[in-house]
Amino acid sequence: MKTERPVDKNMMGNEAKEERDITWLSVEDDRLRLSGFAFFKEDHKLERIPDRFKSVLKEVNPCLNELGVHTAGGQLSFRSNTSRVFIKAKITTIPNMVNMTPVAQCGFDCYIGDNPKDLRFFGITKFDTSKSEYMCEVVSKLDSTKMKEFLFHFPLYAGVIELEIGIDSDALITLPTPYEKEGKLIFYGTSITQGGCASRPGMAYTNYLARKLNLEHCNFGFSGNGLGEYEVAKMLSDIEQPLLYIIDYEANSGTNGRMVKSLNDFIGCLREHHREVPILVVSRVPYLMDHLDEITGTLRNNLREFQRGTVEKLRTLGDNAIYFLDGYTLWGDDFDEYTVDFIHPTDLGFYFMGKGLEPIIREILKEH
Questions:
Q1: Helix (H, G, I), strand (E, B), or coil: what is residue 160?
Q2: How would you write 199-257 as a 3-class SS string?
Q3: pLDDT at 14
Q4: Least packed by Cβ within 10 Å: which of 181, 187, 275, 360?
Q5: Cβ(112)–Cβ(164) under 8 Å?
Q6: Of 359, 222, 183, 197, whose CA–CA distance to 280 is shortest?
């Protein structure tokens, strides 16, 4: 069968050829800020799970090592007066998901602004989806007389084996404006946390929050595998300078009983290492089946109250740095319009998750 080319040229790839007057920078260039990879200094890999945990997790849940290669939450930032930016990348897979776009799964998007508070979406990698390597001009025709902030978000559901950023050879480049404060927001959860099913990486609610708060974050969303393993809590507790843990894994562990069995121990493991770091437990967002099936709705209500009760009990025991948020409050009554498949948010769903969480996280960080 003949494959038709899109009529609209904007729907086609725009892979670039090698051009003159371009300087290529690796992710370890000291003028770039790589963030979102908590263990990069340890292993020098664009992965979310450190090598020293892989043998343990292989025994507990081997899927975690596979998903840990996915670069969800990764960001690359800098300041420059370059008029254009290229990305050259080698990834671990070609796009193959029915409910996510190729750029969300395997590509990058770019935000640009005068400072971190006015970053605006500016472009994506439009690449040949039949290949696992590409070179794309992401932005062009920028004012080369002004220094600007550049922020690139990594793919949500693919690994990145190699990555280079291309800028004008005569452009200035420096580190970006520092974060609002040192430390990391650490998200743990399911496919929703990982970013399924945003249309591009920057629309995942974790990336949205990191931009709005101007903070580093690490995304430990594991699609289909947020099961509350104690070993994962131990891994998260090893991350330096945590600002806040956001725990949201009911979607994968509620119906199989694992959340009820694991939540206390998961929180307890974090508390063993970080007595004062705040923890926010978030119950899941609404599903359509909550309203169509009485058993599902009852279970969902019970799980929400279990999480709320767990947090309240810990607070009565003296832990004043733990909080609960009902995920139902993040979406409105028309929540059925916020997903791609009754479960995974579209950009609209992620936008409202981010908007709802932002003031709550700000308040928690203000208190601590």
A1: strand
A2: CCHHHCHHHHHHHHHCCEEEEEECCCCCCCCHHHHHHHHCCCCEEEEEEECHHHHCCCC
A3: 62
A4: 275
A5: no
A6: 359
For 241: left if phi > 0, alpha if psi spans -120 to 50, otherwise beta; the answer is left
Distances from the Cα of 161 to the Cαs of 5, 46, 89, 164, 318, in angstroms? Answer: 29, 7, 8, 11, 45
What does the pLDDT read at residue 336?
A: 87
* Rounded Cα gap, residues 286 and 335, in angstroms: 7
Q: At what angle do helices 205-213 and 347-367 cross, to 10 degrees?
A: 40
CA angle at 186 for the pair 255 and 105, rounded to the nearest 5°:
70
Both structure tokens of 3 = 């494959």
**Cβ contact 107:124 at 8 Å:** yes
Spatial distance between the Cα atoms of 196 and 340, rounded to a whole number of angstroms: 9
Give the Cα separation of 361 and 278 in Å (integer): 10
Query: Domain 184-367 is classified in which CATH homologous superfamily?
Result: SGNH hydrolase (3.40.50.1110)
CA triple 243-48-32, angle to 5 deg = 75
Q: Do the strands 109-113 and 148-153 form a parallel or antiparallel pair, or are they unpaired?
A: antiparallel
Look up tokens 């696992």; give the residue. Answer: 132
| Fold held by 9-174 | Jelly Rolls (2.60.120)
- Structure tokens of 173? 């480049």
Give the Cα separation of 33 and 11 in Å (integer): 31
Tell me the whole-structure pTM to 2 decimals: 0.94
Q: Which residues of the chain have pLDDT under 70?
A: 1-19
> Domain spans of the chain?
9-174, 184-367
Q: What is the structure's pLDDT at 292? A: 84
Contacts of 14 (CB under 8 A, 6+ apart): 126, 136, 137
Q: CA 102, CA 348: separation in Å to the nearest integer?
A: 18
State residue 293's pLDDT score. Answer: 85
Contact assessment for residue 201 and residue 170, using Cβ atoms and an 8 Å cutoff? no
Q: State the Cα–Cα distance between residues 202 and 204, nearest whole angstrom.
A: 6
